[in-house]
Design brief:
By secondary structure, the protein is mainly alpha-helical. 56% of the residues lie in helices and 4% in strands. It has a single domain, classed as Ribonuclease iii, N-terminal Endonuclease Domain, Chain A, CATH 1.10.1520. The protein is globular, with a radius of gyration of 19 Å.
C-alpha cells in the first residue's frame, strides 16, 4: 500500500503537464482532461469583468497586491493571472505568455488544471525535500513513512496557516454561490452557516495556493518553481516546516 501511494505522489510531473493545454487554433482539448468541461461550469465572466469594469478592476488589484510582494519581481504574475489565483476554486480559461504576433499559436489553460499541476509539484517537492530527502526512510517502518506523508500532504491547515503568515489568506475571493458544486462537504463540518463559510474560505485559499504554483510552473519552469517552493514556502522563516515545528513544540 505504501509503495503504491509513494509511487503515485512521486510520479513525474510531465504525466500531468502533458494533459494541461489545448491549442487555440482548433479549440479542441487534446487529452482526456477535456471531460471535466462537462462537469464544471466555467467562470468566464471573472476576467471579462476585470476588462470592462474599472471599479471591479480596482478592487481586484488592491486585493491581490500582497501576492506581488510575496512573489517578487522574479516571479511576476499579471492582474488577470492574479485574479485567477484569487478565485481559488473557480475554473477559468486563460492564455499564459500570450503571443500577440501569432495568436493562433497561443495556448489556453484551464485554471482547474493549473491547480492540479501546482498541487502535484508542491507535494512532490515537499516530500522529496523532507521524508525522502535521504535513504534513511528505507530503514523506517511503512506505517511511519505513510503517516509522515499523510501529515505533510493531506493537512490543508498547514497551507492555510502559511497563507495567513504570508498575508495572502485574505487575498482570495469566495464567489457568491460558495462553489458548492466543487466542494465535498464532510458530515463533521456541521450545518451552522459560519462554519460552512469558514470551511469554504479555507478551501478557496488552498485552491489559490495551488493555482499560484501552477502559474509559476507554466511561466517560469519546473526547476525555478521548485526552488521557489523550497526557499519561500517550505524552508521560509514562517514556512511549512516552521509551522510543523511550532505545533510539535
Amino acid at each position: 500500500m505504501l509503495k503504491s501511494n509513494t509511487k503515485q505522489i512521486l510520479n513525474p510531473i510531465k504525466r500531468i503537464q502533458h494533459g494541461l493545454a489545448y491549442s487555440s487554433r482548433t479549440q479542441k482539448p487534446i487529452t482526456k482532461y477535456s471531460q471535466d468541461r462537462k462537469r464544471y461550469a466555467y467562470d468566464e465572466d471573472t476576467l471579462t469583468r476585470i476588462e470592462k469594469d474599472e471599479n471591479y478592476r480596482g478592487i481586484t488589484e488592491n486585493r491581490v497586491k500582497p501576492y506581488t510582494t510575496f512573489l517578487g519581481p522574479e516571479f511576476e504574475l499579471n492582474i488577470p493571472e492574479l485574479t485567477c489565483v484569487a478565485y481559488g476554486l473557480s475554473n477559468t480559461e486563460i492564455i499564459i505568455n500570450e503571443n500577440k504576433e501569432d495568436p493562433l499559436n497561443n495556448v489556453i489553460y484551464e485554471t482547474k488544471k493549473l491547480r492540479q499541476l501546482g498541487k502535484i509539484l508542491y507535494q512532490y517537492t515537499l516530500l522529496t525535500d523532507t521524508v525522502f530527502k535521504s535513504p534513511e526512510y528505507l530503514s523506517r517502518s511503512d506505517e511511519t513513512v505513510k503517516y509522515d506523508m499523510e501529515v505533510l500532504v493531506k493537512d490543508n491547515s498547514l497551507i492555510t496557516e502559511f497563507m495567513k503568515s504570508s498575508k495572502l489568506y485574505d487575498c482570495s475571493f469566495v464567489d457568491s454561490q460558495f462553489n458548492v458544486r466543487r466542494i465535498h462537504v464532510h458530515r463533521n463540518i456541521g450545518e451552522e452557516r459560519h462554519q460552512f463559510i469558514q470551511y469554504v474560505k479555507d478551501q478557496t485559499v488552498v485552491g489559490s495556493f495551488y493555482t499560484m504554483l501552477g502559474f509559476l510552473l507554466i511561466k517560469y519552469g519546473r526547476e525555478s518553481t521548485k526552488k521557489f517552493i523550497q526557499s519561500n514556502i517550505i524552508h521560509a522563516p514562517h514556512g511549512i516546516l516552521q509551522i510543523i515545528y511550532t505545533r510539535l513544540s
